[in-house]
Amino acid sequence: MTKQITVRNPRTGRADYEITALDAAAVGEVAGRLRAAQPSWAARPVEQRIAVLAAFKEAVTRRRAELVRLLEDDTGRHQVSVIEVDAVLSGVDRASSFAAEVFAPADLVATGDPSVRTTGDLVAYPVVAAISPWNFPLQLALIDAVPALLAGCAVILKPSEMTPRFIPALRACIAEAADLAEVFTVVEGDGATGAAMIEAADAVCFTGSVGTGRAVARAAAERFIPAFLELGGKDPAVVTASADLDSTASAVLWGSTVNSGHACMSIERVYVDRRVADEFVETLAAKAEKVRLALPGPTDGEIGPIITEAQVAILREQLEDAVARGAKIRTGGEIELVGGGSYLRPTVLTGVDHSMRLMREETFGPIIPVMAYDDAEEAVALANDTEFGLSAAVFAGTAEEALPIAHRIDAGGVSVNDVCLTGMVPEAEKNSFKMSGLGGSRMGPPSVRRFLRRRALLVRNASGPRPWYYDTAE
Ligand code: NAD
């Protein structure tokens, strides 16, 4: 049975949109259609798939303003929506160049056995399920889907039920791109639809929370299908005494509060050398106080509404817990209800420690707890005292000072003298460490390669000696 789901508007708090969630039978039908179309898609030369994705990119370009407006309705923010659509456009180009590299022709090469040469085929998983979250609704919907399509897979995609208003426009873009619609279907639905997709697919890409990721991993394991999991984070920033405090404060402020802090690779903990900690906090707080809420409209200010009510509750609980355990709010800290939406100004806290939920659990909001450390050893220990391992940042006067610290941080990507580079430099291959995920890199050529199984072709010379056990020759 399909079901209707109402969707809340993050600015007004009203349920003003509705989607039809696909049930397991409907998902099965979609997957069956995609499975039938996939072999001829995979059989095309990669150049043809690249051309179809280029047509898709043109369609997204034509509909850029419409997509931005719909994302604005989904998330309540404007500037980030523009960045998001543009990231999709550049992402298609990057993934296409990676695909060309992955499918470069391979010759037969020699092996250790002088009469055997080898080469390989790349065989795409037929149907990939892509399941995405609400924080960057379009970009994270396409970040796995596009490389999978270029690899030769068919894709069934389900964006989050919290932010689905862009789906009709995305479908229109797909319809405008040659025969892309035969191998790429976007469905509406919630967790039950997502779970049904895993039952019907040959591989799953999931971006979301650790809790749901665990359920996805279990379901995929039952079916022996790969699960590529991109999950939560609790990214630390380490600031040494030699860092330029002014530019570091600007970077940390942006990295902690961009998209209202709804970013997996946002900075959620800051460790500063004690000798400069007070100056850093003052600089950071002064800058934070200049950041405005995106009111009265989405094109005003910088910090949009907290997108989901569940997230509002998490932010409130973590702040209350930290204050009850002795944290001091230097600036911000009040969740403001305006016109039905909930907003939080950049919030800087001191007096924090690792007994606080704010320092251990994912926050996903514009909150910046700052803690002093005494030496690099302690900074590394604090940065690594977490179950997460998504990314991190290190700031120092020179790369030579920062890199030894960066090398010791247990995370899949470390930005030096900046933040969030892991999300902005698609060439840099990375894996998610610890509870932040599982599976091949979503960056670089492996972003395409992970959707392909390798079939080895091993060729014995027809006249070559054969090391068989039995000599049955007459
Ligand atoms: P979520 O786990 O609640 O939901 C994500 C998606 O999973 C949604 O589409 C949802 O409908 C679907 N889903 C729910 N139950 C399912 C099930 N049993 N089987 C299959 N699908 C199911 O996450 P969210 O709240 O939408 O997103 C926020 C989380 O995503 C944060 O933890 C954030 O850190 C993480 N995230 C990670 C990255 C990354 O690249 N590592 C990027 C963005 C967000």
What would you say this structure looks like, in words?
This protein is an alpha/beta fold. Helix content is 41%, strand content 22%. Strand 15, helix 12 and strand 16 (367-373) form a beta-alpha-beta unit. The protein binds nicotinamide-adenine-dinucleotide. Nicotinamide-adenine-dinucleotide binds at residues 131-135, 140, 158, 160-161, 190-191, 194-195, 207-209, 212, 215-216, 230-233, 264, 362, 364, 390, 437.
Gist of the model:
With 474 residues, the protein is an alpha/beta fold. It has helices at 24-43, 46-62, 64-75, 79-102, 139-151, 167-175, 191-200, 210-222, 245-257, 274-288, 309-324, 357-360, 376-384, 399-407, 421-424, 446-449; strands at residues 3-8, 15-21, 109-110, 116-124, 127-131, 154-158, 184-186, 203-207, 227-230, 235-239, 267-273, 328-331, 335-338, 341-344, 347-350, 367-373, 388-389, 392-395, 414-416, 433-434, 437-438, 452-460. Strands 12-15-16-11-10-18-19 form a seven-stranded mixed sheet, with helices on both faces.
